[in-house]
Amino acid sequence: MTEFRIVIFTHVRENYGAHDWDGKGECPQYWKNKFGDEYSVFVGDTNKVVELGRKGLLKMAQELAEKHGRNSDYYQEYMVDWCVMSCDEETQQEKWDREDKERWAQRKTVAA
């Protein structure tokens, strides 16, 4: 039986103007785009995905984004996209992370 998860993709911005800010008056604005991240939450099997429908799945994605999102004078992280994936599938970032771990494991084996 196939099981599914919701994956959200975020974007991060950092306000470099806030680093030297003394907290008085208006915070200087110098936002710099940084990176993003991925977060996922288990949904269930096909029946659960159908039961939730698009609105229910979107609600789960938004709740996950609220859990991980941040918005301050210094830092912002917010959802830019989401999808439903099989738990057996890898996102591109998960694939890169796995391949990096495999390369490091091979280097340690060769060096030993």
Main features:
112 residues; 34% strand; alpha+beta; 38% helix; single chain
Reported for the largest beta sheet, the result is: 5 strands, antiparallel
Approximate shape:
flat
Structural class: alpha+beta
Q: Please report the distance between the alpha carbons of the first and last residues.
A: 42 Å
The arrangement of helices and strands along the chain is EEEHEEH
Percent range for β-strand residues: 25-35%
Low-confidence parts lasting 5 or more residues at pLDDT below 50? none
Radius of gyration: 19 Å
Total beta strand runs? 5
Number of helices: 2
What count of domains describes the coordinates?
1
Helix content: 25-40%
> Averaged pLDDT, please?
92
Report on this structure.
A hairpin with a 3-residue loop joins strand 4 (70-71) and strand 5. The longest helix has 23 residues, at 46-68. The protein has helices at residues 46-68, 92-111, and strands at residues 3-15, 31-33, 38-45, 70-71, 75-86. The model has no long low-confidence stretch (mean pLDDT 92). Strands 1, 2, 3, 4 and 5 form a five-stranded antiparallel beta sheet that branches. It has two helices and five strands. It has one domain. With 112 residues, the chain is an alpha+beta fold.
Strand and helix map with partners:
Blueprint: E1 3-15, E2 31-33, E3 38-45, H1 46-68, E4 70-71, E5 75-86, H2 92-111
Task: Provide a brief overview of the structure.
The chain is α+β, with helices and mostly antiparallel strands. It has helices at about 45-70, 90-110; strands at about 5-15, 30-35, 40-45, 70, 75-85.
